[in-house]
C-alpha cells in the first residue's frame, strides 16, 4: 500500500478546497482538526494573551463583582461573562495559562481583604475561591506572574497609609494560601506590575509618607529574590497600568501626586538592561484607575475615571508594541468601571 505525505502547514487549506486523500496517509508532527477560528488559540504565556483581555470586579462607584472580557482578535465591545467571589475593588490581577486571578482588595467598608479567586479562560462562568494572602489584607498592590506562580507585592494594608512590605506567591499547580516570599525592595501602594519571560517588574507607587516613587523594582522568577532597582520611571505616577511586550515593560499614567495632576503618558523600559523608562506616547485622555491586559502585539487599557468631575468610564483603548505611538479608543466595556483588575488569555 502506497503512502502519501501531507504538508501539515497546508492541511486545512487542502481539505477545505476539496483535496481528496486515498490509499492511506502517514502524518507526523501532530494535527489539530479544529477549523481556523473555531476555537481560541493557545494561551501562550501568563503575561501575554492571544484571545481575550479581562476586567474583574471594581467600582461603579459602588463595588461590583462583574467579570468582563473583550477580544484581542477584533475590536468589539466587552461582555459580562461571570461574577467574582463578591463585590470589591482595588484587587491585584494576574494570569496563569488557564485562569484569571484577583487577590485582595477592599470591600464596601474599605476593609482590606485577603481572599483570592480565579475564573476559567476556556469556559465563561463565576470565580471560585483559591485561598488567602498569607501576609495579610492589602489593596493597590502590584502583581505579576511566571508560568508557574502568581505574585502580589506590597500594597496598602491599613488606615493612615500603612503599607504591607511583603511578596505573596501563589502556586498555579494547586489551590491554596499564598506563601510569604520575602520583603519588597521599596514598600508602597498604587504600584504597577509587569513581567518578562524570566523576571517580574514593579514600578512607581507611593510610600507611607505620601511620597511618590520612581523606582522600577525587579526580581527573577528563578531566584524569587528581590534584586533591587532596575531603573526609574520618567514621571512619578500612582496607579495606572503595567503592561508588557516580549522585550519591554510599559507603564501608563495615573495620578501624579507631586504635581497634583492626572497624566496621560505611556512609558517604556527595556527588559534586557537595567535602565529607566522613556515617554513613548499618550493614552486617550487623563483617565486614572484603569485595568489592563497585554496581547502579543498590543497593550490594552479599560475603564477608569476622569479626575473632575469623577466620571467613571467604559472605554477600551489599545496601543501597538511594534511602534511608539498613542493609544486609540477601540470599543466599550459592558459596564463602566474603575479600580478593577486585569488578566489576559
Radius of gyration: 21 Å
Judging from the principal axes of the Cα atoms, what is the shape? globular
Strand order of the largest sheet: 5-4-3-28
Largest sheet: 4 strands, antiparallel
Q: Quote the CATH topology of the largest domain.
A: Neuraminidase
Distance between the termini: 45 Å
Question: What is the ordering of alpha helices and beta strands?
Answer: EHEEEEEEEEEEEEEEEEEEEEEEEEEEE
Number of strands: 28
* Total domains: 2
Give the fraction of residues assigned to helices: under 10%
CATH architecture name of the largest domain:
6 Propeller
What is the structure about, briefly put?
The protein is mainly beta.
Report on the architecture of this protein.
The protein has two domains: 1-32, no CATH class; 52-344, 6 Propeller (Neuraminidase). Helix content is 2%, strand content 41%. It has one helix at 11-16; strands at residues 4-5, 25-26, 52-59, 63-71, 79-88, 92-95, 99-103, 115-120, 128-132, 142-145, 149-153, 166-171, 179-183, 192-195, 199-203, 215-220, 226-232, 242-244, 248-252, 255-256, 261-262, 265-270, 278-282, 291-294, 298-302, 315-320, 328-332, 341-344. The strands form eight sheets. Strands 5-4-3-28 form a four-stranded antiparallel sheet, with no helix packed on it. Strands 6-7-8-9 form a four-stranded antiparallel sheet, with no helix packed on it. A four-stranded antiparallel sheet has the order 10-11-12-13, with no helix packed on it. A hairpin with a 7-residue loop joins β26 (315-320) and β27.
Amino acid at each position: 500500500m502506497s503512502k502519501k505525505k501531507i504538508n501539515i502547514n497546508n492541511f486545512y487549506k487542502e481539505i477545505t478546497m476539496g483535496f481528496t486523500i486515498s490509499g492511506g496517509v502517514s502524518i507526523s508532527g501532530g494535527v489539530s482538526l479544529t477549523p481556523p477560528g473555531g476555537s481560541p488559540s493557545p494561551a501562550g504565556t501568563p503575561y501575554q494573551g492571544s484571545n481575550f483581555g479581562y476586567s474583574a470586579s471594581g467600582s461603579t462607584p459602588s463595588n461590583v463583582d462583574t467579570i468582563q472580557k473583550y477580544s484581542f482578535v477584533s475590536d468589539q465591545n466587552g461582555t459580562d461573562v461571570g461574577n467574582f467571589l463578591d463585590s470589591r475593588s482595588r484587587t491585584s490581577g494576574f494570569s496563569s495559562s488557564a485562569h484569571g486571578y484577583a487577590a485582595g482588595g477592599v470591600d464596601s467598608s474599605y476593609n482590606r481583604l485577603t481572599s483570592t479567586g480565579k475564573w476559567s479562560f476556556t469556559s465563561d462562568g463565576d470565580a471560585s475561591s483559591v485561598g488567602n494572602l498569607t501576609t495579610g489584607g492589602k489593596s493597590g498592590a502590584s502583581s505579576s506572574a511566571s508560568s508557574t506562580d502568581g505574585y502580589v507585592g506590597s500594597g496598602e494594608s491599613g488606615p493612615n497609609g500603612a503599607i504591607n512590605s511583603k511578596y505573596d506567591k501563589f502556586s498555579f499547580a494547586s489551590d491554596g494560601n499564598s506563601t510569604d516570599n520575602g520583603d519588597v525592595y521599596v514598600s508602597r501602594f498604587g504600584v504597577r506590575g509587569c513581567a518578562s519571560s524570566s523576571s517580574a517588574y514593579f514600578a512607581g507607587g507611593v510610600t507611607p509618607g505620601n511620597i511618590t516613587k520612581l523606582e522600577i523594582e525587579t526580581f527573577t522568577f528563578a531566584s524569587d529574590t528581590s534584586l533591587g532597582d532596575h531603573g526609574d520611571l520618567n514621571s512619578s505616577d500612582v496607579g495606572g497600568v503595567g503592561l508588557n511586550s516580549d522585550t519591554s515593560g510599559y507603564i501608563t499614567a495615573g495620578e501624579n501626586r507631586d504635581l497634583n495632576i492626572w497624566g496621560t503618558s505611556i512609558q517604556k523600559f527595556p527588559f534586557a538592561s537595567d535602565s529607566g523608562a522613556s515617554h513613548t506616547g499618550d493614552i486617550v485622555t487623563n483617565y486614572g484607575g484603569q485595568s489592563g491586559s497585554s496581547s502579543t502585539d498590543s497593550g490594552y487599557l479599560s475603564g477608569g475615571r476622569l479626575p473632575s468631575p469623577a466620571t467613571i468610564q467604559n472605554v477600551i483603548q489599545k496601543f501597538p508594541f511594534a511602534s511608539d505611538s498613542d493609544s486609540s479608543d477601540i470599543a466599550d466595556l459592558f459596564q463602566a468601571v474603575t479600580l478593577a483588575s486585569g488578566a489576559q488569555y
